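Quick start: what a row looks like.
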Amino acid sequence: MKSLLLPPNLLLIGLVLGLALYRMKPLWGRTALIISTAGLWLLSMPIVATYLHYAADGDITSFRSPQDARVIVILSAGLLVDPPETNDAAAVDALSLERLRYGAALHRQTGLPILVTGGPWGAQKFVIADYMASSLIKDFGVTAKWRERRAQNTAQNALYSAKMLRSIKVDKIVLVTHAWHMPRAKLAFENAGIEVIPAPTAYYGSSSFSIGALAPSPSALRMSYFAIHELVGTQYYRLRL
């Protein structure tokens, strides 16, 4: 339901509705087609996706120092089930891998232990945290000290991780996730009673303009979706958490 209510699916629904109404209600049909087509075109432009990400990133800045944080928490994204290039039943997806790579680098830089968080995924109920811990060892030579294995969304990442952290007398963490996801994740952990030092990774877009930024692309549409999802999600968390 969530994905249907956000672009691009909402705009695709508008296109279908516009085509369906075109004969019976030409004005309504044309309006729906124009708005939906224009919306898809704009969201597919890298320059639009970039500015949406500037809005989603908010005032989050790059990591400087752990200060007195005692644990690095790495948030999960998703899994690839039965990847053909490995013998494993599943593997972390590209988004999770980007977060793990930066979390491993911060571990080497700071010496802080790592907590990975991510619960059951898909029909097979593979536990993401287990595959994150495995990837840290195999891909980066780093061991996760703790695994939070229940969370199925960002709010639960914060809630269940906070319980584990409080049990070891930790109330301040270095939080690793994508820059566009950080404002919502930080808000969730703070609402769970944990102070956060943000460690965002994989900033999207560039401050320099090029003519290519006006050319629509599937990757820009995908990044626009992420940005809009986070802008809406952050506001929802502020109202509900």
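That is the whole record. DSSP finds eight helices and nine strands in the chain. The beta strands are 71-75, 79-81, 90-92, 114-117, 120-121, 126-127, 146-148, 172-178, 195-201.
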